[in-house]
Specification:
Helix content: 40-55%
Structural class: alpha/beta
Largest sheet: 4 strands, parallel
Number of helices: 9
Length: about 240
């Protein structure tokens, strides 16, 4: 598995990716996992491919939505490196992402085992935001699924970097519906500037709690393996029928 992460100047980003790789290896010890970054961090894709020395691999983007990085940056980086690898789909959408979001809220002290607590809680699903309308539509669809399948009083979407709504807007919208409490759930994979911005906004908006980023949650590791397996099977079928 060639795990392709975005990269960040914040060292917590690479530390989170390393923790996720350790979890992947614990789930599937026989699988070789190599990490490459698109920006800010090393190693980059050409360096890692050189180490693989032509060994079969599947590129798996560590990305939540099919936005610019997935549609443009990852394919371009592989082409520039001369790599002809099957590329797995992004992580979302998947029920495993909802499970991971639930996990992080529970770790923040929310009693997810209580239907009454869920029915009285509004959640702000806070993503980075994208200029790609399809990516933002996928986030809104995930929020709707989360509310429908998990029994929340409401789920509002907010964005940390794109045009609104922002966290305070979403918190106010949920308060206006009469919910007993509001939780802010970052829909991001690693700590950094945007999660810090979300936490600050949630505090300023008097949200009742904020959960951690998804990070190296076991659900994320299992989802990466699913994407890897599916891309590998598809590549084998394509080669057999070509």
């Amino acid at each position: 598995m060639l795990l392709i992460a975005h990269g960040s100047r914040d060292p917590r980003h690479a530390a989170t990716v390393d923790a996720l790789v350790r979890r992947l290896r614990s789930l599937r010890p026989a699988l070789e996992v190599a990490t490459a970054y698109l920006d800010h961090c090393a190693p980059r894709i050409p360096q890692v491919l050189g180490r693989l020395d032509g060994a079969p691999a599947v590129a798996v983007p560590l990305l939540l939505n099919r936005a610019f990085h997935a549609k443009s940056d990852v394919p371009a980086a592989l082409r520039e490196a001369g790599a002809d690898l099957p590329v797995a789909d992004v992580l979302g959408p998947s029920p495993l992402l909802l499970d991971a979001l639930d996990r992080r809220l529970a770790e923040s002290g929310l009693d997810l085992g209580s239907a009454a607590v869920r029915a009285g809680t509004g959640v702000v699903l806070t993503a980075a935001g994208s200029s790609d309308p399809a990516a933002d539509a996928a986030t809104r669809a995930l929020a709707a699924d989360w509310q429908r399948t998990r029994g929340w009083a409401g789920v509002e979407v907010a964005y940390a970097s794109a045009t609104g709504p922002r966290v305070p807007d979403a918190v106010a919208a949920l308060r206006a519906t009469g919910v007993r409490q509001v939780a802010v759930a970052p829909y991001l994979l690693a700590p950094g500037l945007l999660p810090d911005r979300i936490a600050s906004a949630a505090t300023d908006a008097a949200a009742d709690l904020i959960s951690p980023v998804l990070g190296a949650a076991p659900e994320i590791a299992r989802l990466l393996l699913r994407r890897y397996d599916l891309a590998g099977r598809t590549a084998r079928i394509t080669s057999l029928t070509a």
